Structures are given as C-alpha cells and as structure tokens.
Amino acid sequence: MTTPTLPPGASPRQLRKSVLRMRLEMRRQEVRHEVLQLTSPLRQVREYGQRLRQGTAPFWLAGGAATLTALLVRKQGWRRWLRLALILIPLLRRRPPMR
C-alpha cells in the first residue's frame, strides 16, 4: 500500500477519509496475516502430499514396510525381509512417479 499524498492545504474531510482508508488497509492486512497463520498447517500437509507424489513416496513406503516387517516377523525371517527391502528400494526409486 502506498501512503496517500495530501495537498498541503487538505480539508479536515480529506484528512478523515485518508485516515479511514489507512485504517481499512491496515485491518485488511491484519486479517490476511491471520488467515495465512490459520491455514499454514493445511498448506504444510498439502506440500507434504505433493512431495510424496513427486517421487519420495516409494522410498518411504519401502522403508515403512521394511520396518513393519522387521517388527512383526520372527527373528529367523527378518534378514530375508531386510535383504528384499534393500533390493526393492533402488528399484522403486528409479521408477517414474505416478500421476
């Protein structure tokens, strides 16, 4: 917003109008700032979803699957699942992202 320029001999009515315009602009900016702060978590979730769709999702999915299987599978079988996850991670990362 640019500050209004008033002529040197401005009437009281012009001064009141100018002050009112500045107050309205100030209030508009305050409301805009509050809305940006309130919607910031939604924007962060949206950006996180976009990052997942851009190609890091397969890596996180494979890592999560490997972790889950490591926690759920008995001690004898975890090495096999870990080896399988280590083989699949590079393959999943090479695959182009789905749209």
Please provide a written account of the structure:
With 99 residues, this protein is mainly alpha-helical. It has helices at 12-72, 78-94. α1 packs across α2 (78-94). The longest helix is centred in the middle third of the chain and has 61 residues, at 12-72. The protein is rod-shaped.
3D shape: rod-shaped
Calculate Rg over CA atoms: 29 Å
Structural class: mainly alpha
Number of helices: 2
Gist?
This protein has about 100 residues and is mostly helical. Helix content is about 80%, strand content about 0%. It has helices spanning about 10-70, 80-95.
Jot down its keywords:
single chain; 99 residues; mainly alpha
Summarize the SSE layout with pairings:
Elements: H1 12-72, H2 78-94
Helix pairs in contact: 1-2
